[in-house]
């Protein structure tokens, strides 16, 4: 007598999900195909690769449209016997205490790998190697050194301050400025600000403290704004250059300043922060 033919059961597409934790870690949901003849323990071993939860720590909840949610019990239970159908969802709960679960979102305890400068400089396919081959940036034999660039910037700033008649106590607006995007205030500081770094020049904390720069430094204009639309209180890099309420101070380059008869803004004026060179 010929044995009875049993067709291979068709896989069923269901949603696999995890709930969001109390620590606000987001859950996830993905659609996967499940073979109805799998046992619960077989299913759990597959789910571990998706959720990271070991089979022994999984508790599964079956959500079927139109029916009450049910917990799946018994590792030897056959999934197909639970009435699994397209549109169902299996929610994977982690029974481990929160402290014992690996947190893949918190990178604070993960040691960051930093490629040594000597190793990076020896690479032939890096951006640095490309710049060397193209003789760009500091590899350009005609390029100015950072110190020369800083000196040129300082000379340009001095000329701008004189041309624009920028001085302490004068009223000013920050450019570009057109209604309703207008920020105005009073000039409180004009001069070098050593604690604002210049590109390409690194200074130690001791050098900052001793103010050991040689030659002229770029000029910055410190302004106390009429409204708290600034970035500081007149302090930057740990050094105070002028005093004003918090978020009312701002440092800008001289070419971004226009002095004149600018009365204080009314409280109902609409202000919006622009995208400018400022600190």
From TrEMBL:
Keyword Cytoplasm: yes
Gene Ontology CC terms, in alphabetical order: cell cortex; microtubule plus-end; nucleus
Stretches with biased composition (Basic and acidic residues): 147-156
Stated family: Belongs to the TBCB family.
Protein name: CAP-Gly domain-containing protein
Stretch list, region Disordered: 137-156
MF term (GO), any: microtubule plus-end binding
Keywords: Chaperone, Cytoplasm
């Amino acid at each position: 007598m010929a044995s009875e033919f049993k067709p291979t059961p068709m896989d069923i597409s269901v949603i696999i999900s995890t709930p969001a934790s109390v620590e606000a870690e987001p859950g996830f949901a993905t659609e996967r195909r499940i073979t109805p003849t799998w046992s619960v323990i077989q299913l759990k071993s597959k789910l571990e690769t998706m959720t990271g939860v070991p089979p022994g720590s999984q508790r599964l909840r079956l959500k079927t449209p139109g029916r009450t949610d049910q917990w799946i019990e018994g590792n030897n239970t056959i999934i197909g016997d639970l009435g699994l159908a397209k549109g169902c969802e299996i929610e994977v709960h982690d029974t481990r205490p929160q402290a014992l679960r690996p947190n893949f979102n918190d990178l604070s305890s993960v040691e960051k790998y930093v490629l040594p400068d000597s190793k990076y400089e020896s690479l032939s396919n890096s951006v640095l190697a490309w710049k060397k081959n193209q003789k760009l940036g500091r590899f350009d034999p005609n390029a100015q050194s950072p110190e020369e660039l800083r000196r040129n910037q300082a000379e340009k700033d001095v000329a701008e301050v004189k041309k624009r008649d920028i001085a302490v106590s004068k009223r000013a607006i920050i450019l570009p400025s057109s209604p309703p995007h207008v920020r105005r205030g009073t000039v409180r500081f004009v001069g070098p600000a050593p604690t604002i770094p210049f590109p390409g020049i690194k200074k130690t904390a001791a050098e900052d403290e001793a103010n050991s720069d040689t030659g002229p430094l770029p000029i910055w204009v410190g302004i106390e704004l009429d409204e708290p639309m600034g970035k500081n209180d007149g302090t930057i890099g740990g050094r105070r250059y002028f005093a004003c309420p918090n978020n009312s101070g701002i440092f800008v380059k001289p070419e971004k300043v226009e002095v004149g008869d600018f009365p204080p803004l009314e409280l109902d004026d609409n202000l919006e922060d622009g995208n400018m060179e400022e600190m």
